[in-house]
Design a protein that fits this description.
- By secondary structure, this protein is an alpha/beta fold.
- The protein is built from eleven helices and ten strands.
- α7 (about 175-185) packs across α8, α7 packs across α9 (about 215-230) and α8 (about 190-205) packs antiparallel against α11.
- The longest helix is centred in the C-terminal third of the chain and has 17 residues, at about 190-205.
Length: about 260
């Protein structure tokens, strides 16, 4: 899907030197791999940097059925004629900008192979079906991301692919920064933001034992928005934190106890 560029820069609160590293990667025409848990800001970061650099952004949400043809393109029947249709990766290479492949490990194994010529000094995209070989323009950048917490033997990046990228490790922001994010994203008052962040910290401790995934900054923002809209904090946390995190009744009960201890 192509995201039209607009002058507005999406909000992003830097934690370290990630913005500087991204800029250097773009200027040096190097591909970038972003690792981090669900909802920690990877996608927002890429959107922010694309707008900051004045580049169009093409985002592809990878999934089990995503094939190389889905990225590169295919021949389609149009009005009785067979016409070639570029995929999102090919369009980005032709026209420049950032191509962002979100959760790249979810895609089929043959999909990552087509990226290899783009991620070394050749910066080319061979299109076997048409016989073309596209050279990436100077303003093209390839960015991929994945969640290491979901990695297993069947879903992981091969070393031959990983070592073609610069890499950034994302985590959840420190409490003070996460509080700023909640305030900026939802207009929640600082006191409530701090309480929600403290709740998030407590819930993340459960992720080491009973939860498959830790509570994300995204979900805390959802809870804050519901609270700003007039929903009680316990009800907001039920809808934004407890129910999305697990279907296990016993684990839900444990989460509700933590919410009750924090908000009464």
């Amino acid at each position: 899907m192509n995201t039209p560029f607009t002058p507005a820069i999406p909000y992003y609160r830097a934690v370290g030197d990630e913005c500087e590293l991204f800029t250097h990667a773009f200027r040096n025409r190097l591909p970038l791999l972003i690792k981090g848990p669900t909802g920690c800001g990877k996608t927002r970061f890429v959107a922010h940097m694309a707008a900051q650099l004045g580049l169009p952004l093409t985002t592809v949400a990878c999934h089990d059925d995503l094939s190389a043809a889905d990225l590169v393109g295919r021949f389609l029947m149009t009005g009785g004629d067979t016409c070639w249709s570029d995929g999102p990766l090919t369009r980005a290479v032709r026209h420049g900008g950032i191509c962002y492949l979100d959760e790249i490990v979810e895609a089929r194994k043959d999909t990552t192979v087509v990226l290899h010529p783009l991620t070394d000094d050749r910066r080319i995209l061979p299109i076997e079906r048409t016989g073309e070989t596209l050279e990436a323009p100077p303003d093209f950048m390839l960015v991929v991301s994945y969640n290491p917490g979901y990695q297993n033997a069947l879903k992981s990046l091969k070393p031959s692919t990983r070592q073609r990228f610069l890499a950034l490790q994302f985590g959840f922001p420190p409490p003070q920064v996460e509080t700023e994010i909640l305030i900026a994203e939802s207009d929640v008052d600082p006191a409530t933001a701090k309480r929600l962040v403290a709740l998030g910290e407590r819930l993340r401790l459960l992720a080491r034992q009973d939860l498959e995934e830790a509570v994300s900054t995204r979900l805390l923002v959802y809870a804050a928005k519901l609270a700003v809209g007039g929903l009680s904090l316990p009800a907001a946390c039920e809808a934004a934190l407890v129910e999305p995190l697990t279907d296990d009744p016993s684990v839900q009960a444990a989460l509700r106890e933590v919410v009750r201890a924090q908000f009464g």
